[in-house]
Amino acid sequence: MQNHIYYFLLLSLIIVTNGLAQQITCSPQDKVAFEDKIIEIDGLLEKDLGQTIVAVGKTFIGTPYVAKTLEIGETETLVVNLHGLDCTTFVENVLAFSLLLKEEKTDFDSFTNKLKTIRYKDGRLDGYASRLHYFSEWIANNEKKGLIQDITAVIGGREITKEINFMSGHRDLYPFLKDDTNFEKIKASENFLNDQAICILPQEEIEANEPMIQSGDIIALTTSIKGLDITHTGIATMEADGRIHLLHASSSGEVKVSELPLVDYLKKISKNTGIMVARVN
């Protein structure tokens, strides 16, 4: 019921940036949450940006997991939701706030511009299909923007090819795909992905290569599920046991640090085949 009330209170803001109208969906509560978060993260900047990312990420611990927070309204807008996060929006918001710290910016416009840059192909919001829905493409496109580096190959990964078509093959799961134009554009994105190899570190080789994973690295879980590249994502964090754990928005309920080290956590996930790893520049 609480979520229904929350979405009822959502409002659309028209922000003019560089002379262009940018539609943003944000509730008054989330605008306040942004301002509170800016105060909360003040002083968390470290020389090692990875440590900054973990520190910022841990300020979200306890935030409820909420699926499909971006599927709002009839047209694609930049959704700002800090009260409920899924695994991808958690990573996106943590990255956006961490980059604001690095750039010494605290204003809402800078935050929304950063979030838009991260979330959309080449940083341009141009309808539903411009969102980076498949996380392997999210990694590749944000590497192209210079924000991150895919280091999977460096830490022992190997290239694979896999047919990606989960969204078009499960059209009924995505309300925006009722629109034929959106559907055709998503199929075009899938065709593009199918022409690209992706690099993964196989599950059985993660433990041997764990020392090369650093706190703040973005971890994406690859899968054997037909038509899908990634099922989950989060942030690597070195904990007191000296092992890499996963800081993530867990579908079991909220943002948390995995109790088990990443290697052991992954062994309990059905159909997981390995990981992709990206490091923030």
Give short descriptive properties of this protein.
three-stranded mixed sheet, eight-stranded antiparallel sheet, 11 strands, alpha+beta, globular
The average pLDDT value, as a whole number, equals 92
Rg measurement, Å? 18 Å
Question: Oligomeric state of the chains?
Answer: single chain
- Can you give the helix content as a percent range? 25-40%
Order of helices and strands: HEEHHEHHHEEHHEHEEEEHE
Structural class: alpha+beta
Q: Which outline best applies? A: globular
Give start-end ranges of low-pLDDT stretches.
Answer: 1-21
Task: Please give the count of helices.
Answer: 10
Structure characterization notes:
This protein is an alpha+beta fold and 281 residues long. It has 10 helices and 11 strands. The protein has helices at residues 2-8, 28-41, 49-58, 87-103, 108-119, 135-144, 166-169, 180-194, 206-209, 262-267, and strands at 11-17, 20-26, 78-80, 148-150, 158-160, 198-202, 218-223, 230-238, 244-249, 255-257, 272-280. A hairpin with a 5-residue loop joins strand 8 (230-238) and strand 9. The longest helix is centred in the middle third of the chain and has 17 residues, at 87-103. The model is unreliable at 1-21 (pLDDT under 50).
